[in-house]
């Protein structure tokens, strides 16, 4: 018996749509990273892009537990003294709230060339509209997977 290794012709990609409204960010990111990588498939091959195309809508309405909204994102401009930072709360209220979700998913993937290719299969939109109706995506309800996936306000 030989170990199965998928070839490019064997790969079958689906389109998945996820509504992020009320879903906890870390739990959403781990599920999406697994789907992007293709680890949910029995034919998973580590060196191939086996994952599905994932569309996330309502990224601005994602929830965070604890004090995670006050955590900082840091980046450097490339100039001396050019370190910059913003909290997750500032980014969510700003012009590009989807960046918080994209960074969470990106950091759940390994840092290699394949992961950079896998990230091209992710589309994140701040609102409820998306231009991918022609692909007829299947709905993946993350809220129903586990009761801990949603944050209940206290």
Any overview of this molecule?
The protein is of the alpha/beta class and 154 residues long. The chain has a single domain (15-144), classed as Ribosomal Protein L13p, Chain: A (Alpha-Beta Complex). Helices cover 22% and strands 16% of the residues. It contains four helices and six strands; from the N terminus they run βαβββαααββ. It has helices spanning 25-37, 88-93, 98-106, 113-118, and strands at residues 15-19, 53-57, 72-76, 83-87, 122-124, 138-139. The strands form two sheets. A four-stranded parallel sheet has the order 5-2-1-6, covered by helices on one side. A two-stranded antiparallel ribbon has the order 3-4. α1 (25-37) links the parallel β1 and β2 (53-57). The longest helix is centred in the first third of the chain and has 13 residues, at 25-37. The mean pLDDT is 94.
Q: Could you tell me the mean pLDDT? A: 94
Strand content: 15-25%
Helix amount:
10-25%
Return the structural class. Answer: alpha/beta
Number of E-state strands: 6
What's the number of helices? 4
The CATH superfamily name is Ribosomal protein L13
Query: According to CATH, what is the class?
Result: Alpha Beta
List the helices and strands and how they pair.
Blueprint: E1 15-19, H1 25-37, E2 53-57, E3 72-76, E4 83-87, H2 88-93, H3 98-106, H4 113-118, E5 122-124, E6 138-139
Parallel strand pairs: 1-2, 1-6, 2-5
Antiparallel strand pairs: 3-4
Helix pairs in contact: 1-3
Keywords: Ribonucleoprotein, Ribosomal protein
Organism: Puniceibacterium antarcticum
Function: This protein is one of the early assembly proteins of the 50S ribosomal subunit, although it is not seen to bind rRNA by itself. It is important during the early stages of 50S assembly.
